[in-house]
Design goal:
Elements lengths: L3 H15 L1 H8 L4 H18 L10 H11 L8 H11 L5 H25 L13 H12 L5 H21 L5
Helix pairs in contact: 1-8, 3-4, 3-5, 3-8, 5-8, 6-7, 6-8
Length: 175
């Protein structure tokens, strides 16, 4: 199967998209605190992962630029992102897990990010803008068919989902 990781992770992918935080991001209308915390989540992960990914897929600098442009005094970072950063930095994880995370994050920034970039009017979206989108798509393609990355990709989706839960709990919105 060509997109084996998509098939193996689609349930978690949909859970993240359907979460109120994920849905607000996709719709382009998240509360500022949610968006800033989401950027911080992604930055926390990328600041450890970028070193093992090709330069075209690096996002830490762009995420930092986006956080700076938010001009917020303090940005909440969910615990799952902090825990995974520690795991990555202490090299307590295998390459397949890291590449599973790379698949999820690169795919999200490239594919869903292309739509979100246009919808997130008034929000910084540097992390969704690419110097060489074609090269990054080629990198993503090298990951899509690798079944051994499934467990790592699911761990990433679970960490993102738990991060969204913490963001929502930390900044409850009136329904």
């Amino acid at each position: 199967m060509h997109k084996i990781l998509w098939h193996n992770t689609r349930d978690w992918h949909h859970k993240c998209e359907e979460h109120p935080v994920g849905a607000a991001m996709s719709a382009g209308n998240p509360p500022r605190e949610w968006y800033a915390s989401w950027l911080a989540t992604l930055h926390t992960l990328h600041s450890s992962m970028d070193t093992i990914m090709p330069t075209c897929a690096h996002r830490a600098a762009e995420l930092q630029q986006d956080m700076d442009e938010m001009e917020m005094d303090e940005i909440f970072i969910p615990e799952p992102a902090i825990q995974w950063k520690q795991t990555f930095s202490q090299e307590l994880v295998d390459t397949d897990t890291i590449l599973g995370f790379a698949y999820v994050l690169t795919g999200a920034h490239l594919m869903g990010g292309e739509i979100m970039r246009r919808r997130l009017e008034g929000f910084p979206v540097n992390h969704l803008t690419w110097n060489d989108r074609k090269e990054t798509l080629a990198y993503l393609e090298t990951l899509r068919h690798r079944e051994e990355l499934t467990a790592g990709a699911i761990k990433c989706f679970k960490a993102l989902y738990r991060s969204m839960e913490e963001i929502q709990n930390n900044f409850p919105q009136n329904s």
